[in-house]
Predict the structure.
Amino acid sequence: MIRHTLSACVLGSALLAGVPAHAFELAHDNGTLTLPSAPKTVATFDLGVLDTLDALGVPVAGVPKSSYEGALSRYNSTPVIGTLFEPDYAALKQLKPDLIIASGRSRRAVPELSAIAPTVTLGANTDGFIASFKADTLALGKAFGKEAEAAAALDRIQKQFDALHRVNQGKTGAFLFVANKNVMAHAPGDRFGYAYELAGLTSVVPRREPAAAPATRPAAGSPEAKAAAAKRAEEIRALAQAEPDWLIVLDRGAINGAEKTAAATLAAHPEISRTRAFREGRVYYASPNAWYVVGTGLNNLHAISADMLQAMKKGAF
Protein backbone atom coordinates (compact mmCIF):
# COMPACT_ATOMS: atom_id res chain seq x y z
CA MET A 1 0.00 0.00 0.00
CA ILE A 2 1.33 3.47 -0.89
CA ARG A 3 1.14 5.73 2.12
CA HIS A 4 0.29 9.31 1.21
CA THR A 5 1.70 12.11 3.36
CA LEU A 6 2.05 15.83 2.98
CA SER A 7 5.42 17.11 1.89
CA ALA A 8 7.06 19.89 3.88
CA CYS A 9 6.38 22.47 1.16
CA VAL A 10 2.69 21.59 0.91
CA LEU A 11 2.44 21.71 4.69
CA GLY A 12 4.02 25.15 4.73
CA SER A 13 1.72 26.41 2.00
CA ALA A 14 -1.31 25.15 3.89
CA LEU A 15 -0.23 26.96 7.05
CA LEU A 16 0.45 30.18 5.16
CA ALA A 17 -2.98 30.00 3.56
CA GLY A 18 -4.62 29.49 6.94
CA VAL A 19 -5.87 26.01 5.95
CA PRO A 20 -5.71 23.22 8.58
CA ALA A 21 -2.55 21.17 7.97
CA HIS A 22 -4.52 17.91 8.30
CA ALA A 23 -7.88 18.78 6.78
CA PHE A 24 -8.59 15.13 5.95
CA GLU A 25 -7.22 12.10 7.76
CA LEU A 26 -8.48 8.58 7.18
CA ALA A 27 -7.12 5.62 9.15
CA HIS A 28 -7.05 2.55 6.91
CA ASP A 29 -5.63 -0.96 6.72
CA ASN A 30 -2.06 0.20 6.17
CA GLY A 31 -1.76 3.46 8.05
CA THR A 32 -3.34 6.90 7.77
CA LEU A 33 -4.09 8.81 4.58
CA THR A 34 -3.60 12.55 4.99
CA LEU A 35 -4.86 15.03 2.39
CA PRO A 36 -4.89 18.86 2.43
CA SER A 37 -8.67 18.90 1.99
CA ALA A 38 -11.61 16.52 2.07
CA PRO A 39 -12.02 14.65 -1.23
CA LYS A 40 -14.95 15.86 -3.33
CA THR A 41 -14.93 13.00 -5.85
CA VAL A 42 -14.86 9.58 -4.17
CA ALA A 43 -14.76 6.25 -6.01
CA THR A 44 -15.15 2.98 -4.16
CA PHE A 45 -14.88 -0.69 -5.12
CA ASP A 46 -15.87 -1.72 -1.59
CA LEU A 47 -19.65 -2.06 -1.39
CA GLY A 48 -19.60 -2.22 2.40
CA VAL A 49 -17.83 1.13 2.48
CA LEU A 50 -20.27 2.43 -0.14
CA ASP A 51 -23.14 1.38 2.12
CA THR A 52 -21.58 3.18 5.10
CA LEU A 53 -20.85 6.36 3.13
CA ASP A 54 -24.42 6.32 1.83
CA ALA A 55 -25.77 5.97 5.38
CA LEU A 56 -23.61 8.91 6.47
CA GLY A 57 -24.70 11.09 3.56
CA VAL A 58 -21.27 11.21 1.90
CA PRO A 59 -21.57 11.45 -1.93
CA VAL A 60 -19.89 8.74 -4.01
CA ALA A 61 -19.13 9.48 -7.66
CA GLY A 62 -17.96 6.10 -8.98
CA VAL A 63 -18.92 2.49 -8.19
CA PRO A 64 -18.24 -0.99 -9.61
CA LYS A 65 -20.76 -2.76 -11.80
CA SER A 66 -23.22 -4.64 -9.59
CA SER A 67 -26.91 -5.22 -8.94
CA TYR A 68 -27.70 -2.56 -6.37
CA GLU A 69 -30.73 -3.17 -4.17
CA GLY A 70 -32.57 -1.47 -1.32
CA ALA A 71 -30.80 1.57 0.08
CA LEU A 72 -28.09 1.20 -2.58
CA SER A 73 -30.46 1.08 -5.58
CA ARG A 74 -29.71 4.75 -6.35
CA TYR A 75 -26.21 3.70 -7.43
CA ASN A 76 -27.53 1.79 -10.43
CA SER A 77 -27.25 5.13 -12.29
CA THR A 78 -23.83 6.13 -10.88
CA PRO A 79 -20.81 6.09 -13.25
CA VAL A 80 -19.25 2.62 -13.38
CA ILE A 81 -15.50 2.31 -12.70
CA GLY A 82 -15.08 -1.38 -13.46
CA THR A 83 -16.18 -4.62 -11.83
CA LEU A 84 -15.79 -5.76 -8.24
CA PHE A 85 -12.53 -7.41 -9.30
CA GLU A 86 -11.21 -5.43 -12.26
CA PRO A 87 -10.97 -1.62 -12.32
CA ASP A 88 -11.73 0.28 -15.51
CA TYR A 89 -8.70 2.56 -15.52
CA ALA A 90 -9.93 4.67 -18.42
CA ALA A 91 -13.23 5.33 -16.63
CA LEU A 92 -11.37 6.22 -13.44
CA LYS A 93 -9.10 8.67 -15.23
CA GLN A 94 -12.15 10.29 -16.80
CA LEU A 95 -13.84 10.53 -13.38
CA LYS A 96 -10.72 12.13 -11.83
CA PRO A 97 -11.37 10.97 -8.25
CA ASP A 98 -9.71 12.60 -5.25
CA LEU A 99 -9.94 9.31 -3.33
CA ILE A 100 -10.23 5.65 -4.37
CA ILE A 101 -11.29 2.97 -1.90
CA ALA A 102 -10.28 -0.51 -2.99
CA SER A 103 -11.72 -3.73 -1.57
CA GLY A 104 -10.48 -7.21 -0.82
CA ARG A 105 -11.58 -8.25 -4.29
CA SER A 106 -9.62 -5.44 -5.98
CA ARG A 107 -6.71 -5.26 -3.52
CA ARG A 108 -4.13 -6.50 -6.02
CA ALA A 109 -4.87 -3.45 -8.22
CA VAL A 110 -3.90 -0.96 -5.47
CA PRO A 111 -0.52 -0.01 -7.03
CA GLU A 112 -2.17 0.91 -10.34
CA LEU A 113 -5.06 2.66 -8.60
CA SER A 114 -2.64 4.67 -6.46
CA ALA A 115 -1.10 6.08 -9.64
CA ILE A 116 -4.49 7.65 -10.44
CA ALA A 117 -5.45 8.95 -7.00
CA PRO A 118 -4.77 8.34 -3.29
CA THR A 119 -6.01 4.79 -2.63
CA VAL A 120 -6.88 2.97 0.59
CA THR A 121 -8.50 -0.28 1.68
CA LEU A 122 -10.71 -0.83 4.70
CA GLY A 123 -11.90 -4.28 5.62
CA ALA A 124 -13.49 -5.73 8.74
CA ASN A 125 -11.50 -8.70 10.05
CA THR A 126 -13.19 -12.08 10.38
CA ASP A 127 -11.64 -12.17 13.87
CA GLY A 128 -13.03 -9.39 16.03
CA PHE A 129 -15.41 -8.52 13.22
CA ILE A 130 -17.65 -6.14 15.16
CA ALA A 131 -14.72 -4.22 16.68
CA SER A 132 -12.96 -3.80 13.33
CA PHE A 133 -16.21 -2.80 11.59
CA LYS A 134 -16.81 -0.17 14.25
CA ALA A 135 -13.25 1.13 13.92
CA ASP A 136 -13.59 1.47 10.12
CA THR A 137 -16.97 3.17 10.45
CA LEU A 138 -15.73 5.67 13.02
CA ALA A 139 -12.64 6.34 10.89
CA LEU A 140 -14.85 7.17 7.89
CA GLY A 141 -17.15 9.25 10.06
CA LYS A 142 -14.27 11.23 11.54
CA ALA A 143 -12.60 11.77 8.15
CA PHE A 144 -15.77 13.09 6.50
CA GLY A 145 -17.01 15.11 9.47
CA LYS A 146 -19.77 12.61 10.28
CA GLU A 147 -18.42 11.17 13.52
CA ALA A 148 -21.59 11.80 15.56
CA GLU A 149 -23.79 10.22 12.89
CA ALA A 150 -21.49 7.18 12.67
CA ALA A 151 -21.49 6.71 16.45
CA ALA A 152 -25.29 6.95 16.64
CA ALA A 153 -25.75 4.42 13.83
CA LEU A 154 -23.30 2.00 15.46
CA ASP A 155 -25.17 2.32 18.74
CA ARG A 156 -28.43 1.29 17.03
CA ILE A 157 -26.75 -1.76 15.50
CA GLN A 158 -25.08 -2.73 18.76
CA LYS A 159 -28.47 -2.84 20.47
CA GLN A 160 -29.57 -5.42 17.91
CA PHE A 161 -26.39 -7.44 18.39
CA ASP A 162 -27.00 -7.39 22.16
CA ALA A 163 -30.58 -8.58 21.66
CA LEU A 164 -29.38 -11.41 19.39
CA HIS A 165 -26.85 -12.50 21.99
CA ARG A 166 -29.54 -12.60 24.67
CA VAL A 167 -31.82 -14.72 22.47
CA ASN A 168 -28.99 -17.11 21.62
CA GLN A 169 -27.26 -17.25 24.98
CA GLY A 170 -25.78 -20.71 25.48
CA LYS A 171 -26.78 -21.82 21.97
CA THR A 172 -24.61 -23.34 19.25
CA GLY A 173 -24.64 -22.92 15.50
CA ALA A 174 -23.10 -23.85 12.18
CA PHE A 175 -22.67 -21.69 9.08
CA LEU A 176 -23.27 -23.56 5.82
CA PHE A 177 -22.23 -22.19 2.42
CA VAL A 178 -24.29 -23.92 -0.26
CA ALA A 179 -23.20 -23.76 -3.91
CA ASN A 180 -23.97 -26.06 -6.85
CA LYS A 181 -25.47 -28.70 -4.50
CA ASN A 182 -22.27 -28.67 -2.44
CA VAL A 183 -22.40 -27.88 1.26
CA MET A 184 -19.37 -26.35 2.97
CA ALA A 185 -19.01 -25.38 6.62
CA HIS A 186 -17.51 -22.03 7.59
CA ALA A 187 -15.79 -21.94 10.96
CA PRO A 188 -14.58 -18.98 13.00
CA GLY A 189 -11.60 -17.65 11.05
CA ASP A 190 -13.22 -18.39 7.66
CA ARG A 191 -14.74 -15.75 5.39
CA PHE A 192 -18.20 -15.99 6.97
CA GLY A 193 -16.98 -17.04 10.40
CA TYR A 194 -18.11 -13.68 11.72
CA ALA A 195 -21.70 -14.98 11.59
CA TYR A 196 -21.18 -16.60 15.00
CA GLU A 197 -20.05 -13.30 16.49
CA LEU A 198 -23.04 -11.45 15.03
CA ALA A 199 -25.57 -14.04 16.20
CA GLY A 200 -23.99 -14.79 19.58
CA LEU A 201 -23.73 -18.50 18.77
CA THR A 202 -20.90 -20.88 19.64
CA SER A 203 -19.62 -22.65 16.54
CA VAL A 204 -19.75 -26.45 16.52
CA VAL A 205 -17.08 -26.30 13.80
CA PRO A 206 -13.55 -25.96 15.24
CA ARG A 207 -11.88 -22.64 14.66
CA ARG A 208 -9.73 -22.45 11.56
CA GLU A 209 -6.76 -20.14 11.24
CA PRO A 210 -7.14 -17.93 8.12
CA ALA A 211 -3.62 -18.82 7.01
CA ALA A 212 -4.61 -22.50 6.91
CA ALA A 213 -6.89 -21.91 3.90
CA PRO A 214 -5.39 -22.95 0.54
CA ALA A 215 -4.09 -20.07 -1.58
CA THR A 216 -5.56 -21.46 -4.79
CA ARG A 217 -8.41 -23.82 -5.60
CA PRO A 218 -7.14 -27.23 -6.81
CA ALA A 219 -8.04 -28.29 -10.34
CA ALA A 220 -11.30 -30.20 -10.65
CA GLY A 221 -10.76 -33.96 -10.49
CA SER A 222 -7.22 -33.63 -9.19
CA PRO A 223 -6.06 -35.68 -6.19
CA GLU A 224 -5.93 -32.42 -4.21
CA ALA A 225 -9.52 -31.59 -5.12
CA LYS A 226 -10.70 -35.07 -4.11
CA ALA A 227 -8.85 -34.85 -0.81
CA ALA A 228 -10.39 -31.44 -0.12
CA ALA A 229 -13.88 -32.77 -0.90
CA ALA A 230 -13.37 -35.73 1.43
CA LYS A 231 -12.22 -33.39 4.19
CA ARG A 232 -15.29 -31.17 3.71
CA ALA A 233 -17.60 -34.19 3.84
CA GLU A 234 -15.96 -35.40 7.06
CA GLU A 235 -16.39 -31.94 8.57
CA ILE A 236 -20.08 -31.88 7.65
CA ARG A 237 -20.59 -35.30 9.25
CA ALA A 238 -18.97 -34.11 12.47
CA LEU A 239 -21.03 -30.91 12.35
CA ALA A 240 -24.27 -32.85 12.00
CA GLN A 241 -23.35 -35.18 14.86
CA ALA A 242 -22.76 -32.13 17.08
CA GLU A 243 -26.44 -31.15 16.62
CA PRO A 244 -26.09 -27.35 16.41
CA ASP A 245 -29.05 -25.36 17.74
CA TRP A 246 -29.09 -23.17 14.61
CA LEU A 247 -28.03 -23.54 10.99
CA ILE A 248 -27.13 -20.30 9.19
CA VAL A 249 -27.25 -20.92 5.45
CA LEU A 250 -25.94 -18.81 2.56
CA ASP A 251 -27.32 -19.83 -0.83
CA ARG A 252 -24.58 -18.78 -3.25
CA GLY A 253 -26.68 -19.59 -6.29
CA ALA A 254 -29.47 -17.21 -5.23
CA ILE A 255 -27.38 -14.05 -5.65
CA ASN A 256 -28.95 -11.27 -7.72
CA GLY A 257 -32.42 -12.78 -7.51
CA ALA A 258 -31.53 -16.19 -8.96
CA GLU A 259 -33.38 -19.36 -7.97
CA LYS A 260 -33.08 -20.43 -4.33
CA THR A 261 -31.95 -24.05 -4.14
CA ALA A 262 -30.22 -24.33 -0.74
CA ALA A 263 -33.29 -25.66 1.09
CA ALA A 264 -33.69 -28.48 -1.43
CA THR A 265 -29.97 -29.26 -1.29
CA LEU A 266 -30.06 -29.53 2.51
CA ALA A 267 -33.26 -31.59 2.45
CA ALA A 268 -31.50 -34.11 0.21
CA HIS A 269 -28.31 -34.13 2.27
CA PRO A 270 -27.91 -37.43 4.17
CA GLU A 271 -26.49 -35.83 7.32
CA ILE A 272 -27.82 -32.26 7.48
CA SER A 273 -31.40 -33.29 6.74
CA ARG A 274 -31.44 -35.47 9.88
CA THR A 275 -30.26 -32.78 12.30
CA ARG A 276 -32.81 -31.53 14.82
CA ALA A 277 -32.20 -27.94 13.72
CA PHE A 278 -33.19 -28.75 10.14
CA ARG A 279 -36.14 -30.95 11.07
CA GLU A 280 -37.47 -28.39 13.56
CA GLY A 281 -37.02 -25.39 11.26
CA ARG A 282 -34.18 -23.66 13.07
CA VAL A 283 -32.53 -22.66 9.81
CA TYR A 284 -31.74 -19.04 9.06
CA TYR A 285 -31.35 -18.36 5.33
CA ALA A 286 -29.04 -15.36 5.04
CA SER A 287 -29.77 -12.76 2.36
CA PRO A 288 -27.31 -13.70 -0.44
CA ASN A 289 -26.64 -10.18 -1.71
CA ALA A 290 -26.44 -8.61 1.74
CA TRP A 291 -23.94 -11.19 3.02
CA TYR A 292 -21.99 -12.20 -0.09
CA VAL A 293 -22.00 -9.08 -2.29
CA VAL A 294 -22.13 -6.13 0.15
CA GLY A 295 -20.79 -7.75 3.32
CA THR A 296 -20.49 -4.88 5.77
CA GLY A 297 -21.88 -1.32 5.85
CA LEU A 298 -24.08 0.58 8.30
CA ASN A 299 -27.39 0.10 6.49
CA ASN A 300 -26.52 -3.44 5.46
CA LEU A 301 -25.50 -4.72 8.89
CA HIS A 302 -28.51 -3.01 10.44
CA ALA A 303 -30.76 -4.91 8.00
CA ILE A 304 -28.86 -8.20 8.51
CA SER A 305 -29.01 -8.05 12.30
CA ALA A 306 -32.67 -6.97 12.35
CA ASP A 307 -33.68 -9.82 10.04
CA MET A 308 -31.65 -12.38 11.98
CA LEU A 309 -33.08 -11.16 15.29
CA GLN A 310 -36.67 -11.46 14.05
CA ALA A 311 -36.07 -14.98 12.72
CA MET A 312 -34.24 -16.24 15.80
CA LYS A 313 -36.77 -14.79 18.19
CA LYS A 314 -39.44 -16.88 16.44
CA GLY A 315 -37.25 -19.97 16.65
CA ALA A 316 -36.15 -19.42 20.25
CA PHE A 317 -36.50 -22.43 22.54
Observations:
- The beta strands are 24-28, 31-35, 42-44, 99-102, 119-121, 172-179, 182-186, 202-203, 246-251, 283-286.
- Confidence is low (pLDDT under 50) at residues 1-21.
